[in-house]
Amino acid sequence: MCPLTHFHCLTLLTTVVASFIFGFLWYGPFFGKMWAELMGKKMEDCKGKKPPISALLLTLLGTFLTTMVMAYLLHYSKVGCTFGLATCVWLGFYVPLLLGTVTWEGKPWKLFILNGCFYYLNLQLIVGVLTFMG
Question: How far, in Å, CA of 28 to CA of 87, rounded?
């Protein structure tokens, strides 16, 4: 039996939308200016410009894939709580990848912290919505 059939399509869709909105808020009104500065961009250059549709679609696809993986892991998880599962995924996958951006790409530690906090909270949101609605 496919473990993803445990989750209703509406649950998965709601989770993807919630995560996508959280990302929009995090990298928009909440920390957009800080993120742009840490990336070496000027907010004036971005004002009035819409992101390309391909960037939005790829972000939506990535959010969908993350949600599907977390739903799969939740089904088979031996971790006692969803909080722990999201933390393990964050520590095992996201943190090492983000450390690479500091080490090899020369990105600032503040960017590591900003992105790391986003991914941690986003994973918590994803497993929270999946658990609540699933």
Answer: 24
The residue type found at 14 is T
34-54 pLDDT tens trace: 999 999 987 676 677 778 899
Task: Give the Cα separation of 115 and 120 in Å (integer).
Answer: 9
**pTM summary value:** 0.89
- Give the Cα separation of 70 and 77 in Å (integer): 10
Q: How many CB atoms neighbour CB 26 within 10 A? A: 19
How is 64-117 classified by DSSP, letter by letter? HHHHHHHHHHHHH--SSSHHHHHHHHIIIIIHHHHHHHHHTT---HHHHHHHHH
HSE of 3, CA atoms in CB hemisphere, 13 A: 11
